[in-house]
Amino acid sequence: MLLKVRNLSKSFQNGTRAIEDLSFDIPAGKITAFLGFNGAGKTTSLKIILNLLLPDEGKIYFENKLLKNDFTPLLKQTGVVLESARNMFYALTPMENFIYWGAQRGLNKKVAQKNGLELLEKFDLLSKKDTVIFELSRGMQQIIAICCALISKPKFLVLDEPTLGLDIEAVETVERILKTLASEGVAILLTTHELAFAQRIADQILLIKKGRLIYSGSKADCLDKFNQEKFITVQFSQALSNNQRAVLESIAKIISINNTTYQLVLSNRKNLSHLLKFLTQFKLMDLKTKNKGLNEVVDFYMKGKNEDGSIKSGISA
C-alpha cells in the first residue's frame, strides 16, 4: 500500500472538530475519489497528508514507513494541484514553468526540460510549449498544472477539484490523462463535487461527513451493493389482464405508472430470466432498466445516516 492514514483527528482553536479518527488506504495505480460536502473535512485531511497542518492524533505511513517529524520521503514523491492555489506562473510558458518547478524538486534544467517535453507530447500539448500560460484555454492550463505536478515523476498525485470550470472536452481530456497515469502505477487522490466524473474515473471511493469517514471501499463494490435490486420500466401495447398481472406480481414488485406502463422491482436477480420469459409473450412498446449511480449512493450516505453512523429507520441499501 503506497499511503496509509490511521486514526487522524484534528480540532481547531475555536473548538471545531474538523476530522475525527480518519483511516484509509491509497493504493498505487488506482484513482481514489475523496467525496463530501463543503466543510466535511476533505481539505483539512489533504493538508495533514501534505504536512501543511499537524494532526492532534493519528499516523501516516508512506511505502510502509511511518512518517514522524520528517515528511520528506512522501513529499519528494508527491505532485499536487490545489484549487485556487498558485500551481504555476501564468506569465511564463509551460517550459519555463517546468524549469522552475523542476528546480524546486531538485531537477537540473536539462532534466526538467526533458521531462516536460515528454509530458507535453503525451498529453498532446507539445505545440504550446512556448505559449505563455494566460493565453491558453482553461482546460489547457489545468493540464499544464498537472504536468508541473508530474515534472519529477512522482508516485503520488493529489488533485483538488481538477475539473472545476472545465468544458466537456477538457474534462474528457483530464479523464484520459488520469487514467493513463493510473495505468502507469501513479496513485491518484482527488476531490470533486462532480459525481458523474467521479463515477466514470474512480476505482475507490472515500466519503466523509462532518469529519468522519462513513464509506471507504471500491467503487464497483459500492455500486454493486446499491444495485442488488433491479429497476425495470416496461410499457405494454395494452393493459394486462388480472391473471397476467398476478403472474407478473409473483416475479417482481409492481409500481403502476399508468394502464400500460409499470415499473418493476426485482429484489432477486435470479428472477430476471423468469421475467424475460414472461415478457416474450407480449408486444412491448418500450423497456428500460435503471441502475443507481454515485449520486444515489452519496445521497443515501449523506442523508440516510444518523450522526453516529447508524442507518436511519426506513432507509435501506
From TrEMBL:
The keyword GTP-binding does not apply. It is an enzyme of class 3 (hydrolase). Keywords: ATP-binding, Hydrolase, Nucleotide-binding, Transport. InterPro entries: AAA+_ATPase (IPR003593), ABC_transporter-like_ATP-bd (IPR003439), ABC_transporter_ATP-binding (IPR050763), P-loop_NTPase (IPR027417). The lineage of its organism: Bacteria, Bacillati, Bacillota, Bacilli, Lactobacillales. This is ABC transporter ATP-binding protein. One of its GO terms (molecular function) is ATP binding. The gene is tcyC. Its EC number is 3.6.3.-. Residues 3-235 form the ABC transporter domain. Pfam families: ABC_tran (PF00005). Belongs to the ABC transporter superfamily.
